[in-house]
Amino acid sequence: MRTQGAMIMEVRLYFIGIDLGTSGLRAILVDQFGNFIASSESKYEVSNPKTGWSEQNPEDWKHACKLAFIELRENFPKEISRLKSIGVAGHMHGAVLLDDLNKPLRPCILWNDTRSYKEAQSLDSLPKVRDVSGNIVFPGFTAPKLMWVKNNEPDLFQKIKTVVLPAGYLNTWLIGAPFADMSDSAGTSWLDVKSRKWSEHLIVSSDMQIDQMPELVEGNQIAGKIQGDLASELGFPNDVMIVGGAGDNAAAACGVGAIQEGEGLVSLGTSGVLLISRDRCKPFPDAAVHTFCHAIPEKWYQMGVILSATDSINWLSQISGKTALELDQLLPNEPTGPANEKFFPYLSGERTPLNDAHIRAGFAGLGQTSDLEKLTQCVMEGVAFALRDCLEAIKKTGTSPSSLLATGGGSASQFWLQTISNTLNIEIEKPKTGEFGAALGAARLAITAIIKEPIEKIMTKPEIERKIMPNQKYVDLYQTAYEIYKKGHVNLRGLQ
Is residue 239 annotated as a catalytic residue, yes or no? Predict the structure, then answer.
């Protein structure tokens, strides 16, 4: 985070970063040095009309955003009077279908909606789709969702003027015209990820037209000015600029300063992410590695994604009657080697490297002495082994990080972080408590559009609380345990 001494200005300027999440919206106010001023949060619901369906009303996001803006203005009127720009980060892949008045035609089909699995398989099988998009076509991606709409809601499909992503919908509301940033758009299966432009080949392959795509901008590029009527309603200056913003993971990388080649993070959230920043585009879709544009120009990032990280501990918490914290307290701070028990964390299927929506979780090696402490340990180890799968897949693209910055709720567990360090044989950095998530990343993108300083001086790394080194006494033991874990992939698939 930058300090006031880094730059001398007569008038301090202010910026807002928005993290549009699946369950709620968070807006933060920062100054031009990145110093946190305040935040505001609002919640909203997810609708599940049918099994495998996941939808949300885009108007709920707009309402939540408006409430957050008003709260910040009421509590910090002086700062808001000097507001210069806004950046929005949002959950990726969701399909918001707009009519010719930029109004939603139906609820947004969210990232975790799997209804379009047949359409995804069909699109993924077409020539050059993986080559151009840089990714497997997952059911969660945007393109197969639109194919599903055409097949199942044909009358509505004919009314679509433009398709935007969730962050793009907020941005459309803010400036009055649709646009999209590169990092978010890379998760649609419509973008030529290497060239950072819409691919007519991909778009036509999924029964859409290129004129239904919004204008593309880089994440730190000014897309337009806030609508005058909206600025008046919110009590904002009428010259506030809106920048491209980012998909949530790219924004999180900006928030922790992971922007240079080989810099990365490991996120222990509901799902798990191992993200590495890249200076070039080198996709490896066959191992279900995600290759997306970064939120800043001429940068990309690659991710291994597991679907159940803290979700695995939350599941164990639910069936044991113990909180996640109570489970963690059963364990020592330092692991003394892997458990005999094994856990395969596929509660909702798996992405990297298995790309298997049907595989399910399992325990192996349970015995009479397998108590709750051992089960907690092996659940954490199972997540660590799944992250090792992600690391091995990413290594095949030509990069191998020397350290990873830990984020997400699960990073509060010292035992878990040490287990991951031992399993990956990589240093893990634990930041001090503070603001360094997707909202800060979006705010930093807003800053870089106005403050003409090198990006790396704005997107700095957070202060590190501790560095967790692999315990070489146990690294070989975790390697052996990982090899056993890998054999379980085949066996579990055989049980489905």
Answer: no
